[in-house]
Amino acid sequence: MAAxxxxxxxxxxxxxxxxxxxxxxxxxxxxxxxxxxxxHSLVDTTNQLLLLxxxxxxxxxxxxxxxxxxxxxxxxxxxxxxILIFGIGGCISFYQGVIHIQHPPPLExxxxxxIVLAFSxxxxxTSLIVAIRAFDKVRGDLSWWTAIHRSKDPASFIVLFExxxxxxxxxxxALMVYLGHHYNxxxxxxxxxxxxxxxxxxxxxxxxxxxxxxxxxxxxxPATQQxxxxxxxxxxxxxxxxxxxxxxxxxxxxMLLLMVTFRDDLGTEDINExxxxxxxxxxxxxxxxxxxxxxxxxxQRPT
Length: 303
Known about the structure:
Layout (H helix, E strand, L loop, with lengths): L2 H27 L2 H27 L14 H30 L8 H29 L4 H7 L3 H29 L4 H30 L5 H12 L4 E13 L2 E10 L5 H18 L3 E8 L7
Parallel strand pairs: 2-3
Antiparallel strand pairs: 1-2
């Protein structure tokens, strides 16, 4: 099982179990905050299923309809997930909050809510720790936000965001449940739902921005471009690399187009041999680059 798949399955199991418990508790205690949290967990469960579906479809082999493969399926479904977080989770939380502020139900015994919240903290916290450890392995020395912004694997940071938002949301709900009963204020339950809705909206916007960027096509990092340029220009057949174009088809599949100037004294056979040599060197240095086009281009001369 791939590392990110393990993270997703862990989050899926945790969210499914927690969603059931939260809905039962919310219905028994008439707590809008618990119902909002139940919706949050149910949306997260759906999101994990969609991510797994996207990962599976992205790994299909190229065919006549998609000669470059189906890798971008994962980016599409990641974008759908980011929309669902707001469209379902955030909006329902806002709705529950407004309704319960306008018509606050009488306060019930909060014991079940505390029990459910405690179990939820354990499950969500465990899932978050698994997601953090998995992301730590790939982020290296980068800061968290820089690593997320540069990541080409949305499945890894989506689960991280979801679990982080879940833990924050649980903290808010636990605090509001306590304050509501301590001060005999039933309005705080609805306030908790509104805050959960705001948290989900913020997460949705951040994930939508990152997923949209990947879906539209991100290229390799500038440092990688410079290294490839140096690698190619070190070949005796090359005068200069004029342009480098690249795009991620999936987290592990990159297309690369090089426009290069060959030496004027080379024949067709020499150029073909150089192209084969350059492709092998690049693929050896960067395994995710599976498709490379080397386009000869005349030397640009000053006018």
